[in-house]
Amino acid sequence: MNNVLSSRVLFGTCSFCRCFLRRRRASPHVTEPRGTTATVSHRDARIDLSRFYASSQTPCSIKLPNNRQMSDKIGGAMNVFDRNMKRKQKQWAASLEDPDKYEYLKNEVGSRVADRVYDIARTFPLALDVGCGRSHIAEHLSKDVVERLFLTDVSESTLKRRRQSDIPVQCILADEEFLPFRENTFDLVMSSLSLHWINDLPGALRQIFHVLKPDGVFIGAMVGGETLYELRCSLQLAEIEREGGFSPHVSPYTAVTDLGNILGQVGFNMLTVDIDDIHIHYPGVFEVMSDLQAMGESNCAWNRKSMLHRDTILATAAIYKEMYGCDDGSVPATFEILFMIGWKPHESQAKPARRGSANISFGDLGKINQSPSMDKPKER
Amino acid sequence: MSGANVWTRSRERMKRLPELFAQCGPEATAYGKCVTATTSSKEELRKDLCIREFEALKTCILSAAKKTVK
């Protein structure tokens, strides 16, 4: 990571322009640069460089300060994924002749998100779909539930080749981590299968919280937990046996418990998080990997290995089939989809009862069977 | 990347791999069993622990490829 840092400092103008653009979007908090200590993370380098220029006019050949305090302010966000690469992968996936053939998972999850939207008995005048891909949710919604819809994605080709729907739609090219909308704009924000490529998940959820109106709802679906554990384990064993060590090929996922915590920290109310396990059967590991690639879900983590040897692929196929194969010769791939619903606080929402307002004691709980007319204790 | 280059050629070769793999069922199972045995036994998986089974699998794949070469 150090050599990346030095290259950004050396090739002067280019890195300055790029960082200046980023600075306009991040909240400007100009402080004095401190002395360097240990290595600077990649993300810190980008944002630090912008603040450095904001505070002084010195040329960029000066050693970059490591500003630990600033990284705490941002929330210690990680830089795991190469967003530029992800955009390129999505452009490529959208440019295939028949992208519909490979997007069965996204269609299914999109329909389940739309189900959850229908569960809420409201009409949403303005809705936003973050990281919409080829728009898999909108086709299941109707005009009496969502009146106007905004679609955002990082990749232009996916927006151009989106699926048609009845709802009037507006497409905006935007990154999920930098939403270009004003506060309190949307009644409904949806997101289906794109949050797992975000570097700073709390930050992105904070932005979603920001653009929601009070009493607005966020319904999201992301891949998490034990997704593709079969692929991960087979690749790991094959690489150890063939090459002597292993490197991560499947990106890291959020656990259910962490998701609930993050949503709570951001400020969402009345959270609902549930898991859906989807098992898809493939003829072999080659089909698993090529389908994932065609969906635009190839790995784009910075620490990914750029090569997968033929021997390792062969070994993975054999191990996958032996460890997880089914009787009919197919192999399963698990997708654990985490669905989350969160509301922006509003006075009309139910709150926990006031302390001391109980009129029934927990001690009477044992008597519930005896007198069915007794109410449940109201105190939480 | 468009046109005929090393990536398109190797991609074509990779596309044949599933059908060749299907013809080498027993060798693949033997190799798979050798590796998965280490997950339950005390022996740690190291490099080339199952090299004999893997070489058998690889020769099977190569001979299948030679047989079906266009």
From TrEMBL, chain A:
SUPFAM superfamilies: S-adenosyl-L-methionine-dependent methyltransferases. Its main location: mitochondrion. InterPro entries: Malonyl-ACP_OMT, Methyltransf_11, SAM-dependent_MTases_sf. GO terms for molecular function: oxidoreductase activity; S-adenosylmethionine-dependent methyltransferase activity. GO terms for cellular component: mitochondrion. The keyword Translocase does not apply. The keyword Metal-binding does not apply. Pfam families: Methyltransf_11. Keywords: Methyltransferase, Mitochondrion, Oxidoreductase, Transferase, Transit peptide. Residues 352-380 are annotated as: Disordered. Residues 128-219 form the Methyltransferase type domain. Belongs to the methyltransferase superfamily. This is Arginine-hydroxylase NDUFAF5, mitochondrial. It comes from Paramormyrops kingsleyae. The lineage of its organism: Eukaryota, Metazoa, Chordata, Craniata, Vertebrata.
From TrEMBL, chain B:
InterPro entries: NDUFAF8. One of its GO terms (cellular component) is mitochondrion. This is NADH:ubiquinone oxidoreductase complex assembly factor 8. GO terms for biological process: mitochondrial respiratory chain complex I assembly. The lineage of its organism: Eukaryota, Metazoa, Chordata, Craniata, Vertebrata.
